[in-house]
Amino acid sequence: MQQALRRLGALVFLATSLTILCAVAAPGARAGDPAREVVGLFVQSCLKYVEDPQDLRAWIDSVPQLRKLPASQAKDFLEGRRGDVWSASNDAGLFALAVFGDDTCTVMAQFANAAEVSQVFSEYLQRKKLPIDKVGDQTKFTRGIDQREETYRSSEGSLLYEVVVLTSKSPRAEVQAVLTTRPNR
Questions:
Q1: Mind listing the pLDDT tens digit for each residue in 49-74?
Q2: What radius of gyration, in Å, describes the C-alpha atoms of the chain?
Q3: Most buried of 71, 142, 145, 158, CB within 10 angstroms?
Q4: Strands 132-142 and 145-154
Q5: Please, are residues 106 and 46 in contact by the beta-carbon 8 Å criterion?
């Protein structure tokens, strides 16, 4: 009986977590839409708080669906850099949010349609009329895997920054979408 109650409690917790996480995603996002999920998480975290890393961390702490990964798992995402990583996985797929020691912020999706990620992000920029200009768009092949890198730069604000949208159509890519904010270099 106790085991059944624990299972029921775990199922209720899981269902509640997924419902709340879907609410955190981009407005209008459908459950199971990885492109909207990854862009939604990115704009609500990295992009929204690009000028204030302390507010970003406070936001992360306020979202119970973001689960901080132990250092042993985070190191795979950090690639030798200092920082923290949170899992944001839900019914739409596997997602992660990483904040590096230099306040670079990245959201990753294991699987997401490359063209849809670019389109959803572009539509978001147009809808919000953000002072961000596209300054680069190139496709290259690394270890036989296609990678499209779109680079944007802010043109206003107290902190000028870049947004890099890296996508891949290849099912062999470790992640198919990586969206990053970082200071202009």
A1: 999 999 999 999 999 999 999 999 99
A2: 17
A3: 145
A4: antiparallel
A5: yes
